[in-house]
Amino acid sequence: MFVRCLTCFACGNSYPKDVLINLCECGKPLRVDYDLEQVGKALKRSGSASRGHDLWRYRELLPLPKGVEPDSLGEGGTPLLSADALAQRLGLPAGTLWVKDEALNPTGSFKARGMAVAVPMAKHLGAKKLAVPSAGNAGGAMSAYAARAGLEAHVFLPRDVPVANRIECEIFGARVTLVDGLINECARMVQERKEAEGWFDVSTLKEPFRVEGKKTMGYEIAEQLGWVLPDVILYPTGGGTGLIGMDKAFEEMEALEWIGPKRPRMVSVQAEGCAPIVRAFDQGLHEAPPIEHATTIAAGLRVPGAIGDFIMLDILRKTGGCAVAVPDRELIAAASEMGATTGVCASPEGGASLAALRRLVATGWVKPGERIVLFNTGSGTKSIEALAGAMA
Predict the structure, then answer these.
(1) Which domains does the chain show, CATH number per domain?
(2) Antiparallel, parallel or unpaired: β 97-101 and 80-82
(3) Which helix (H) or strand (E) holds 63?
(4) pLDDT tens across 325-378, in order?
(5) Following DSSP, what letter does each residue of 120-134 receive, concatenated?
(6) What is the DSSP letter of 245?
(7) Per DSSP, which regions of the chain are E strands?
(8) DSSP notation for 85-138
């Protein structure tokens, strides 16, 4: 609607806004840039309050052109739930801790936000067949939105993916390929076959528009907290589109004069068995070498390497944030604790965010009185085998 161009996160090369494209010529991700001066004339901060509660309330800040209707399933508008009982267990004051529950999105996870924007944009720009490698939830979300849009969907999943994720893709009519390996091996197969098969690759950060859907989490947090951002955001990190998207949202909001320059300290949370961002952050690296033989019970965190690694590491450092890895036993126990104290059916990934917060409170990195948002990125019902097995 108000898109100016696509710009490379790394080298700054720009591309037209109306081309079906994956990566920059340099091999790095592309960012959607807007004419924010014109956006500011069309949408005021108070204006979104009179709209619906899905992510399309921020339509002027999303790339789908005017007159092109999204194939929406009601994505976005998830609750920011106070968590006073949980705060008390952590030794934190009441009124300082919230859980952003992304499990209430269509298909049960935050992945719906990204695909809700990426799929209709791909369709608008001429794609007929979509393909995605997935650790689970992204495949289900892509399948649902492709079905809604009337597009052919191909999903590549690790063979040991949670059963709910595989069945979900099949229910939506996707062609599912189970792969002996992790998501990186799935991505290799998509890359090798996409040209011959006529697929458009909607992998994490290998097209520009999934980030745009994910950034609406940042807009919602700001609006739900009265346009005053929290001090700390803890986010379970696999491919990193949510982390990158929220940072982009905060930059856009400051340019629109909706918020000031203060940013939350962003915390990337990973599992000990697959923590490339944590390792790179601790070692002072600007890119994150992939983890060999990655393993974790949290399927969404089993991402050995991410193409947006350099972007995430920059966000963590510029916001004064950090990166934390937690063992599987802690993240599973924390998922149960989150459920018992908040009523949120937390995924293992959501549990990881709570386990990381407990560590940061214990070390004094998070101080009493600071305002904190934890993310539960998906429904625990989709990881029932992992949760049941670990809690038996």
Answers:
(1) 80-109+211-391 (3.40.50.1100)
(2) antiparallel
(3) none
(4) 999 999 999 999 999 999 999 999 999 999 999 999 999 999 999 999 999 999
(5) HHHHHTT--EEEEE-
(6) H
(7) 3-8, 14-15, 30-34, 80-82, 97-101, 129-133, 152-158, 175-179, 200-201, 232-236, 265-271, 322-326, 372-376
(8) HHHHHHT--TTSEEEEEGGGSGGGBTHHHHHHHHHHHHHHTT--EEEEE-SSHH
